[in-house]
Amino acid sequence: MGNTPQTHIVPMNSSPTSVLLLPTLDHLKRVDANGGGCMVFDSSHLRKQARIPSQFIWPRNDRLSAIDELEAPIIDLQGFLHGDETSTLDAAKLVASACTRHGFFQVTNHGVDTSLVREAFACLDEFFLLPLNEKLRARRKPGSMWGYAGAHTDRFSSNLPWKETLSFGFDDAGDKAVVADYMKSQLGNEFEQMGLIYQKYCEAMRKLSAAIVDLLAISMGVDPSYFRDFFDESSSIMRCNYYPSCQEPELALGTGPHTDPTSLTILQQDQVGGLEVFTDGQWKMISPVRDALVINIGDTFMALSNGMYKSCLHRAVVNSHRERRSLAFFLCPRSDKMVRPPVELCKTDRQYPNFTWAQLLQFTQQHYRADVRTLQAFTQWLGSNPIC
Ligand SMILES: O=C(O)CCC(=O)C(=O)O
Question: Locate the Fe2OG dioxygenase domain: which residues (predicted)?
Fold first, then answer.
């Protein structure tokens, strides 16, 4: 039998840690109501120390090494995107087999311009290489999903991820320049160009996500119009991940074990490697494939598929010699959309109750740190917080 990762069923500790990792930046020190300092993650400072702080050391079970590669198909989308029937059926079969087992697959010839991906990575480098006090101008505000965060110290006080993130929203129906405006408002006019590139990147991801949702529908024998309606006016989240190298990578994690509460994730990882998936009782690697995007099913889609397609535990490990970067686009429905499987998938008992994306988001932001049990815990929570 394989090892089971430890689940974090404890309610989320949403209070920031009182440990200040960067005592030299006194002007950044924010004293909270209890008199504690708010921690700032400065990897250039931390990397000079022999040991990593204890807040970054994960439980042994979460750190067990991956040995094998995940069996995840690499699906060429060219034929499907050009309406070729045979290619579509072949692609749909591969998708069905991957998603019923673990929910991960990779796609090539996906239509996203490689120069746009290069530009998005160049912007990521430009942003994360800024001095810390400049990045902190875009610091995530309490209760917001958007902004810059170092090691999620604003939300958690232990099992901290060894990474920095920059997150922002992207709406189908909203203001066309939402990303550029956000960058400009947080960081100044000189960041408008970066915002325009991320805006274009999000538009490309949204277009691809629509195609993949169609392919998921075909693979499940569901009328594609059901999911198209469900994701109409979607409101997605984009996250840039920057994982500095770490002097004790065997003790730390870049992203801890979690499932994505969102619907569908499109991940562009660089060539360093570090993404791992827990399946069949073991952690398995998803090594980078040049110009391929990693797709995975999130909790919302698992509920929408009545449990047929899996949202699987994954994590990102770090290493001691090289920083790693990834760009994650999380497709989410409009917040008030009811998550209810189509009739074709309700021939067996319903696995999850109806809920709105807003409710699941509230649960994972305010009450629960996402893990392998998110949907079960959410279902219990819904019992005492029913939809009005
Ligand atoms: O960077 C990666 O490979 C994974 C990132 C991830 O899981 C996340 O951002 O939720």
Answer: 234-333
